[in-house]
Amino acid sequence: MTNLNFATAAQRTSLRSALSLVILPFRLLVLLPAMIAGRVLLRERGLDSAPEHVVWDEADRLWSPAHTEVELSVIMPFYNPGGALAPTVRRAHEVLTAAGVGFEIIAVSDGSTDGSERTLDGSPPEVHVVVLPANRGKGGALHAGFARARGSWLGFVDSDGDIDPAHLAAYLRVARRGGYDIVFANKKHHDSQSASSLLRKLVSFGFSSIVGTLFSLGVNDTQTGCKLVRRDVMAELLPRMRETRFAFDLELFVAAVTAGYRDLRAQPVRLEERVSSSTVTSKAILRTLTDALSVLARRHYTDTYVQRPAGAPTSAARADHAIAA
């Protein structure tokens, strides 16, 4: 029996080696053209510079100490969510109150034109609404929300009803116990459940396959919209990040891994059927793929994700800032 087990282990090792030999040329075949295309995008668009609305003064606020009464800041970016917004915010408030967490909810209108922010009129004092005059994209809206966050943990969750905000309360418990840098929803987790449409599942599979081939992050689901990040980690990463649309999530992991953060914890999630209309359009898919190529080129051809940005406070300056606060 021992010999049989040994042979089986040896066969598995040989199989893995053979698969690696097959996969490596395929990965190079995909990676090299992708890097070239990404570099062209960087040159033509100047995508290594920070977006105009993302300024260090805003990100710098994250270095100030968290508010003593706010453990968790939840950012909910939204764009024309219709009737889905208010129930999602209400649900988040209910579950976080029941969990005994000191929290705030920052709902950011990303240039919405349907007046959905008015559905939050009369919300409890823990709910704050930020209205951006023009559409910046999911990442741009998150930047605006993080700049106003006071919690020691920063979470963000989709506002369209497909993810129960109760997951953030569960992720916070995991983060407290494990001291993780980032805790994130992973729809590929063996305990996850999904009621998403076939189209969304196909798009997700395709994008995650591309990301796995190009980036080798050790994260097989970067895009599910529910994540929790420690405040000091976000303060370090946010000024390095450039993406303002859906590739923000991918870039968060690229920036974190490149900067040396390794305590990333995947957690199960239940994806419900969307209440609002889907944002998965052919244009959005193409744009996200293009943005992913820009992230790839930025990672390999620039020091954007390695060096702290000019103007970022030094350790001493951060300490002085904390004392002053």
Automatic annotation (TrEMBL):
UniProt cross-references to CDD domains, sorted A to Z: DPM_DPG-synthase_like
Keyword Transmembrane helix attributed: yes
Transmembrane segments: 20-42
Domain Glycosyltransferase 2-like: 73-237
Keywords, sorted A to Z: Membrane, Transmembrane, Transmembrane helix
Annotated InterPro entries: Glyco_trans_2-like, Glycosyltransferase_2, Nucleotide-diphossugar_trans
Pfam families linked: Glycos_transf_2 (PF00535)
Protein name as annotated: Unannotated protein
Organism: freshwater metagenome
